[in-house]
Amino acid sequence: MNIMELMIRKQFLPQTLGDRFAFLFFILILPLGYWFTLFIVIPTVVPNSPVRYLLHFIWSTFLMISIVSNFVYLVLTDCNASNAIKQASNQTHWKYCAVCDCETPPRSWHCDICKICILKRDHHCRFSGCCIGHQNQRFFIMFLAYLSIGTLYSTCYILIFLWTSTSFTISVFSVAKMIFPMAVFVLGIDTSSSQLYSIMLIVNFLGLVLSSCLLIYHFSVMLKGAVMYENSHKIYEYDLGSWKENLKQVFGSRWYISWISPFIKSELPNNGADWESVKCQAVKCK
Questions:
Q1: What is the mean pLDDT of each run of 10 residues along the chain (286 residues)?
Q2: Distance CA 135, CA 78 (A)
Q3: Are 208 and 155 within 8 A, CB to CB?
Q4: Which of 3, 131, 242, 286 suits a disulfide with 118, CB 3.0-4.6 Å?
Q5: What pTM was computed for the model?
Q6: Which residues have a Cβ under 8 Å from the Cβ of 186 and sit 6 or more positions away?
Q7: Cβ proximity of 23 and 46 under 8 Å
Q8: Three-state DSSP class for 186?
């Protein structure tokens, strides 16, 4: 799917204070983590080895590009349900949205933050400041996948870096510095470079835990052919009975390579509005 073929959101900046804070934190910490790992940690862990450093540089840059590109596609893609009204050939079981004052397709719900109905709405993502829906769910899943790999990679090497370059003494103060690294640094108790390194370790580790947990949950829901609301209410009427077929509903016809990059075109089998045929197919599969 080419970025020029996507419907671009008219308002892609976060709308609430919480969304803005999360969005700003992410776009600041991501390049900082990339720079810290590649230019501070790796040269220390693999000194005097240009070839190994080049391999790390290529791998780190690939992860960075993959995270950023999927995030950009995720944020810019318009999932407004109103775009599907003109494309729909069957309006069976559509429902009326009093806020938008229009009929909307099945699996579409109104978002009070985005202030529109989202096509096959899954949830509202704080870090991107937008809803995850029919057109951008693929980019959300891959964003989480590459972010999980990136934070795992960074966390492991930062641990090695701290272990080899920093001396530790077991005490109440040293434990407090590890548990509350930001507070210790901001209050001026310890403003050393090693304390900054500890902060980067904690941030990467928390990013790893959060992204990997979200990835496992959302990927499992996707393989059931459901979205969050349907999964929480045990509604699996769109489950095609095969992980591959359910995967195609999100990753498109070229699902086997579309995970490599968001720049790879992969047409979705459904326009996001006509779900009756999918429901009938799911019934036959069961």
A1: 57 86 94 95 90 95 97 92 68 82 88 91 93 95 98 95 73 61 62 76 94 97 94 92 93 93 91 81 70
A2: 7
A3: yes
A4: 131
A5: 0.90
A6: none
A7: no
A8: helix
